[in-house]
Amino acid sequence: MKSRITISAIQQPCNADRQTNLEISIAKITEAANAGAELTVLPELHLESYFCQSEDNSKFQLAESIPGATTKILGDLAATLKIVIVATLFEKRTPGLYHNTAVVFDRDGSIAGKYRKMHIPDDPGYYEKYYFTPGDLGFTPIDTSIGRLGVLICWDQWFPEAARLMTLAGADMLIYPTAIGWDPLDSEEEKNRQLDAWLTIQRAHAIANGLPVLACNRTGFEPSPCGQSGIDFWGSSFIVGPQGEFLQRADSVESRLLLCDIAAGNSETTRQMWPYLRDRRIDSYHGLNRLFID
Amino acid sequence: MKSRITISAIQQPCNADRQTNLEISIAKITEAANAGAELTVLPELHLESYFCQSEDNSKFQLAESIPGATTKILGDLAATLKIVIVATLFEKRTPGLYHNTAVVFDRDGSIAGKYRKMHIPDDPGYYEKYYFTPGDLGFTPIDTSIGRLGVLICWDQWFPEAARLMTLAGADMLIYPTAIGWDPLDSEEEKNRQLDAWLTIQRAHAIANGLPVLACNRTGFEPSPCGQSGIDFWGSSFIVGPQGEFLQRADSVESRLLLCDIAAGNSETTRQMWPYLRDRRIDSYHGLNRLFID
Lengths: 294, 294
Known about the structure:
The structure is a homodimer.
Chain A: E1 4-11, H1 18-34, E2 39-41, H2 69-81, E3 84-94, E4 97-105, E5 111-116, H3 128-131, E6 142-144, E7 147-151, H4 160-168, E8 173-178, E9 181-182, H5 188-209, E10 213-217, E11 219-222, E12 231-234, E13 238-240, E14 246-249, E15 256-263, H6 264-273, H7 276-279
Parallel strand pairs in A: 1-2, 2-3, 7-8, 8-10
Antiparallel strand pairs in A: 1-15, 3-4, 4-5, 6-7, 9-12, 10-13, 11-12, 13-14
Helix pairs in contact in A: 4-5
């Protein structure tokens, strides 16, 4: 990683039509670059309303190839602005095989790499197993001109294994494009528990691995197309340092560009002070490759 | 696990002589049992001042066999009070082989099992690698009459692998006897970051695994015997539920008995709502058995 980089996250609603969502993203990426950002991250599947609220065969029409029309637009933008962009697309790999895929564009506009979401959720209102085949690219960070990016997507954020594997493969930071929100029918107490758990577990990935973590979520209410209660996306995007300390943090409703400097030396100092990587008991971790030890 | 149990943690200073420390522990265990606790946990190595502040050959005299004199006292107490006790002892296994070992006494006074600390720290003021051989019993929960206890010790608390392995082996809750504190020379800002990281990563183990977590730390300042700055043990013992929500929490200086009810059904409901165990990618986790993927 460069010794010091300026990173950013674009918290935005994504509940309009694709063209409007794309225009918002382009305007915000331009704003980020003009503010000095060398990297920017968009919310998960930022081109669309969160179509996984129902299982609807017609939504497969939204999928596109990588490279394709959208990667051409975003790649050109990355080259023009000289900024690394992390965007998540609904990938059509071949008819009948689709993924939830993050694409990383380098500052010259090339595709530096892609990550196919490995852990796929499925619960009421988030029917992702219907649409997305679990990724087959593993937990492989993506090399760019500014550093090695550990890009993961949303549901991955609940799995310490994913964060650790990206770290062991040399990631300089973890990046989580996200689409998560509240069920409006839940109590305020339950909503607070859920948001706090979401913040806590991702901050813990920073702590356990001694590196910065950036999470970028969408905002806004999106109604259910099938009579459920809809999703109130909770925003709260953040950037934390290698001790899990907040560097930048958005609230749950605002559209906002989060921007901050990250120094590579902070991770190294933190890992020397808190040498977890030194002490892992790899002789005794084989059970992690099992679902349950009966 | 029983459908509902009352658990407790004894936050106490441990910087007096062994007999005084033991008397404090016994009084507090009795208080816990009288208050209805069916399980209680003492801070790590509660019989001694934290002798690992220096590498001192004479301290090996403090080590004792398991079973031995102390387990007899605590076992008898467990039987008298009908309470499960988790205590950490400096174990002498054979001359030249010592461990940092948690012993679990069941309500009939028997030793239900023991756990030998797997991850051993070593940094200025915490010279544990000098004293303790890393455990060879693996991450195996201990069955008791009230449930299956995932007992880990202090430094283990920074490793998501340990929490996950205990969960996969069927632990009903995680328990961390601890001795951790501040370097008095650190800034208030750094102290806050460290304490917050400690709380955050353990709450994250609850969240990732959908089970309660109890951490029991000592309090009080213990001077360094070798001219370093000593350790200001930060207390802050806590019990959280399966979403990482605080149920009980001590401050950094008080001697206190933390007591609360845990319902087994909460873990089951939480895991059905947040089904991480369903979605782990065990086909892609082999890298966790490596120190680094070069």
